[in-house]
Write a structure and sequence with these properties.
The structure holds three protein chains of three kinds. By secondary structure, chain A is mainly alpha-helical. Chain A is about 55% helix and about 0% strand. In chain B, helix 1 packs parallel to helix 6, helix 4 runs antiparallel to helix 5 and helix 5 runs antiparallel to helix 6. The chains are: A mainly alpha, B mainly alpha, C mainly alpha.
Chain lengths: ~140, ~220, ~675
């Protein structure tokens, strides 16, 4: 909540697009208004790139386009690239110091997602591997 | 570094174990020196953290899906079930919907009620189309006997994609409410902040859809 | 499809005396309290000042009260289990097995979700904004929603005592036992919906505090000037944000299995029940660190205050805290070493579990070094800290023993394990809650608690704990497994009798704590805290009045160093007057109170109850009600009210006068001792 009296002026300030929010240097005025043209350009570039990457993903499923065993990796790379396009062009996530908190939060999220996803797969794969095979199980039961 | 030398300072700190000066830190609000950050940044960041928690929720469903993908109970697998044309249509809908949402936030930034409502309506219609396509796909699968109660793989598939669909539906409900709030309340600060949260939510749902169509539909359609 | 779903009169346990009579007693107590409140005319006050409050201080107190009340319920469950096990040697005891199962399940569920979590979150609520030098948390109304959703979950769990039954599957409902085939009753549903509802509340708290700590601090408070309690609150909140979605997802999968016939964890259709254990412990391990990290922060505050020294190794404490935060997400498999992942996987997680003991050790050494060379005052909070250090260190060591997979194969699910986790949770979390509430009670209520009764409570708790749980280790090594409602091994009997005696000692301790509160309230005028700083504290929460005004600080402090309040006091003593001149008092905008939290929780209880009993029309009504509540909240025109400058001035001037008076007293003392020395 806005507890800093100086921030009363920020209430009427322009808030450009769906930015998560950049920290400001204390006492500095808010960011300059970008022009409509500049902002639109950002979104259109994002849309075009995302569309191209999507097309690429579907296209790489066709026979003979990409070396067979590499298709999965290609799909993952294209998918991650598209996520990046969304983050940069639609969510305006940058690497500048005013975005540090946002980027760090994303990094933390990615870490946890990786641990849960890959950790679960690894653990369950090993457990399944150690399960008694069905035939032997049925024999043990006398069936 | 504080220069207080009152009697309460017990000794020096030659190894900087406790009281190292915080030099070199940028004086950004939210990093400390500037005091509490303005409300818009607080709201945006809080919602961003919530979105990350939601992504972690989805990762559990992704993990279950991947673990259970081969548990087919004698029934069909991904290759037999998925219609990639339908997936492509859904993807286009959601991507354009995300773009429209971005345009709506530009309109909100410029306080134009007309363009805000138009862009939000387009966002909503594209979102509804997406849901319609998905419901059609689900009912089709159930009719073919490949419903979620048939096998663990199908349970995981319906839950993962369905969870995303439930989020989109909730988003549409939110969108409808916002479309009513803008004419009623104008561009008050709290409404704009709420819209910021909605647009972050909507873009995040598109990001998750990228994960779904890549991992579930495209990779699932590959030959083993 | 009947109107009331599965709900019939048979849901009320008319033929089971224990739940029936205890339910009736509780109902009578509730009615008596309500009647007293209404007749004394307190209802408008309670509604206006507490139920609809969005003030973090009020919400924090309500969380602590919820935790304390549920501690009594959970402890009664503990007494029942201990007496049953003391009696049931070659005998059936007094609890039928199905009841015993519900008792141990309820005990664990209540203690973790509705005692430990509310206590820690409550103290975080009360203290963090004050320590950061700001007026409230980032999202005050959301804070209220969080509290009431937690209370809603607690209500549902307690309702299961008199309407229906609770789950018999333990505090974590493992499938396939918890699936519909083997648990067709409503017990598991009560559990799942109560936890899902309160889980949403907790997740919101996590988001709230991460945002508050990272974005809302007083001017000049860099990260390395934050109090240690705020650092641990940050780490705990990050873990909440990371882990609670996993709990929500996993219970949702179980609910889908039970309600719609999905096959996530069933033993037919390809389900994989091991996946439940995997996911639930991926939440479960971070959960215990969510509990323990704030209590580590409490100890940091208490130890530095009562040693009269700054916390030793502040930087290393930060690294240790964040290391624990990250590593705690890499050890979860140690809860199911025996499930068959194999030696490779077990080793990785075993080593990680041992590594996490290192930053914990760093923290203990830092506390010890803080005490070394300081002037240690053995007030009650400090006693709790010392009791913690001894108790938790031993418990932690047994944890490292359990982290060795071959050892764990012997000790898994034995009383050794149960003794270990009671050791660490009681030693760290519960003692921390006790230290915290004793330490910050004056801040919240304006008067100090009775020291003598506090010390009695401490000693009875420490002795009682060791008498109750020391035998647990022994009997675990002798092969006793957990959750036994009867047994026939003669070697265990004396130990279980000793454990029952321990529980009696703890009962006396709890009576002492209740007496402490009652006596202190009665004699509160003699123990008023007039300046806001009864302990000679070091951080900013002691720089305001006790209790603080709703706006916390008339003007946000300018922070120049760590332990800013200590710094302010030092400079004040140098210059002979309060460091800050009277500020130019401005009107202060504060968030308006709101019934959103209470009403949302009301609809949550309705929806949860309806889902449990399959009353589908009521589910729709409840969800619609919740939606309408959100819209009503979103539609309000005024979300802030202005506190007039005159009011701010009046409150602040009173506190400044008291502080100036005490400063002058202190300086006069110092001068007189100096004169007498020369």
């Amino acid at each position: 909540m806005s507890t800093n009296p100086q921030d009363r002026t920020n209430r009427e300030a322009f808030d450009p697009g769906s930015h998560i929010g950049e920290d400001r240097v204390a006492g500095a005025p808010p960011h300059e208004h970008p022009t409509l043209r500049a902002e639109l350009r950002g979104y259109i570039i994002g849309l075009v790139l995302a569309a191209l990457l999507t097309l690429g993903s579907f296209w790489s499923l066709q026979e003979g386009v990409i070396y067979g065993p590499a298709i999965v990796m290609a799909l993952i790379v294209l998918g991650l690239a598209q996520v990046g396009v969304h983050l940069v062009f639609f969510l305006h996530l940058t690497t500048s110091p005013d975005n540090t908190n946002n980027a760090l939060a994303l990094a933390f999220g990615v870490l946890i997602v990786s641990l849960v996803f890959f950790g679960s797969i690894w653990v369950l794969y090993n457990m399944d591997h150690n399960m008694i095979p069905v035939k032997a199980l049925l024999q043990m039961r006398g069936g | 570094m504080s220069t207080s030398t009152g009697a309460l300072r017990v000794g020096r700190d030659p190894y900087h174990l406790g009281h190292a000066p915080s030099t070199g830190e940028p004086e950004y609000t939210g990093h400390g020196a500037g005091g509490p950050a303005p409300k818009r940044i607080v709201v945006g960041y809080g919602f961003w953290i919530f979105i990350l928690s939601d992504v972690i929720l989805f990762s559990c469903f992704f993990a279950s899906y991947t673990v259970l993908i081969h548990a087919r109970n004698g029934g069909p697998g991904p290759r037999e079930l998925f219609d990639l044309r339908n997936t492509a249509e859904e993807t286009v809908c959601l991507l354009l919907s995300s773009f429209a949402c971005g345009l709506a936030s530009l309109a909100v930034g410029r306080r134009s009620l007309l363009w805000t409502e138009v862009a939000l309506a387009v966002t909503g219609l594209l979102g509804l189309t997406f849901i319609g396509l998905e419901v059609h796909e689900f009912t089709g699968l159930v009719a073919r006997g490949a419903g979620p109660t048939h096998s663990a793989f199908l349970s995981a598939f319906f839950s993962l994609v369905g969870c995303h669909g439930v989020h989109v539906t909730a988003g549409l409900l939110w969108l409808g409410t916002m479309m009513a709030q803008f004419p009623a309340k104008g561009f008050k600060e709290s409404i704009r902040h709420r819209y910021l949260c909605f647009s972050l939510f909507w873009h995040a749902l598109d990001i998750i859809w990228i994960g779904i169509f890549t991992v579930v539909y495209l990779i699932g359609s590959l030959p083993p | 499809m009947t109107l009331l779903g599965k709900l019939t009169w048979r849901a009320i346990p008319f033929e089971q005396p224990l739940p029936l009579y205890s339910g009736a007693v509780v109902l009578l107590i509730i009615i008596a309290v309500l009647v007293w409140v209404v007749r004394r005319g307190y209802l408008p006050y309670l509604w206006r000042e507490w139920v609809t409050s969005v003030d973090h201080k009020r919400i924090g107190v309500m969380y602590c009260i919820l935790g304390a009340v549920m501690l009594l319920r959970g402890f009664i469950d503990a007494m029942m289990m201990r007496s049953q096990q003391a009696m049931a040697y070659n005998a059936p005891g007094f609890l039928p097995p199905s009841h015993f199962d519900q008792v141990f399940s309820a005990h664990g569920t209540i203690m973790i979700f509705f005692v430990a979590m509310p206590f820690m979150i409550g103290l975080m609520n009360l203290v963090v904004p004050l320590q950061l030098g700001v007026r409230d948390v980032a999202f005050p109304t959301l804070n209220s929603v969080s509290f009431w959703l937690t209370a809603a979950g607690a209500l549902l769990v307690n309702l299961s005592l008199v309407i229906g039954e609770f789950d018999r599957t333990g505090w974590l409902p493992y499938p396939p036992l918890s699936e519909l085939t083997y648990s067709p009753g409503v017990g598991v549903d009560y559990y799942c919906w109560a936890i899902q509802i309160s889980g949403i509340g907790t997740l919101m708290t996590g988001v709230n505090f991460v945002t508050t700590i990272l974005k809302l601090r007083a001017p000049g408070m860099h990260y390395t000037r934050m109090p240690m309690f705020c650092w641990t609150a940050l780490a705990s909140s990050l873990l909440i944000v990371a882990a609670f979605p996993v709990l929500t997802a996993t219970l949702a999968m179980l609910l889908l299995d039970r309600y719609v016939g999905f096959h996530f964890f069933t033993d037919t259709g390809g389900g994989n029940s091991m996946m439940f254990m995997n996911l639930i412990w991926a939440w479960g391990h971070p959960e215990v660190y969510i509990l323990v990290l704030p209590s580590f922060g409490i100890y940091s505050e208490v130890v530095s205050t009562f040693s009269g020294k700054p916390l030793f190794g502040y930087r290393s404490m930060i690294y240790a805290t964040m290391a624990i935060c990250i590593i705690s997400f890499m050890v979860w498999l140690h809860h199911f070493f025996t499930m068959g992942a194999g030696a490779d996987v077990n080793s990785v997680f075993g080593i990680a579990s041992m590594i996490i003991a290192i930053p914990t050790g760093v923290k203990i050494f830092n506390w010890l070094f803080t005490m070394y060379g300081g002037t240690v005052r053995l007030a009650t909070p400090m006693l709790w800290a010392l009791g913690f250090m001894v108790t938790f260190a031993i418990g932690g060591m047994t944890g490292v023993m359990l982290a060795v997979p071959p050892a764990d194969f012997q000790l898994h699910n034995s009383l050794f394990l149960v003794a270990h986790f009671h050791n660490v949770i009681i030693g760290a979390v519960l003692f921390g809650a006790f230290a915290g509430y004793t330490y910050w009670f004056p801040k919240a209520f304006g008067f100090v608690l009775d020291e003598r009764l506090g010390k009695w409570a401490f000693w009875l708790w420490v002795i009682g704990f060791w008498v109750a749980w020391g035998p647990g280790y022994v009997v675990g090594l002798e092969g006793m497994t957990r959750r036994l409602d009867h047994y026939s091994v003669a070697e265990w009997r004396p130990w279980l009798l000793v454990a029952a005696a321990g529980v009696v000692i703890i009962l006396l301790a709890i009576i002492a704590q209740i007496a402490q509160i009652v006596v202190s309230v009665r004699t509160r005028e003699q123990r008023r805290d007039l300046t806001g700083d009864p302990w000679d504290g070091r951080n900013l929460e002691w720089a305001t009045a006790s209790p603080p005004p709703s706006f916390n600080f008339a003007a946000l402090p300018n922070v120049r160093d760590q332990e800013p309040y200590w710094d302010m006091k030092a400079r004040a003593r140098e210059i002979g007057q309060l460091v800050r001149p009277e500020p130019e008092y401005q009107p202060i905008p504060m968030p308006r109170n709101s019934s959103t939290g209470f009403v949302t929780a009301l609809f949550a209880v309705i929806t949860g109850f309806a889902l449990i009993w399959h009353i589908w029309w009521l589910v729709l009504l409840g969800l619609a009600g919740a939606y309408v509540t959100f819209v009503a909240f979103a539609w309000r025109d005024h979300d802030e009210e202005l506190i007039p400058a005159a009011e701010v001035a009046r409150l602040d001037r009173a506190n400044r006068a008291a502080r100036t008076a005490r400063l002058q007293e202190r300086m006069a003392e110092r001068d007189s001792t100096r004169d007498s020395d020369t």
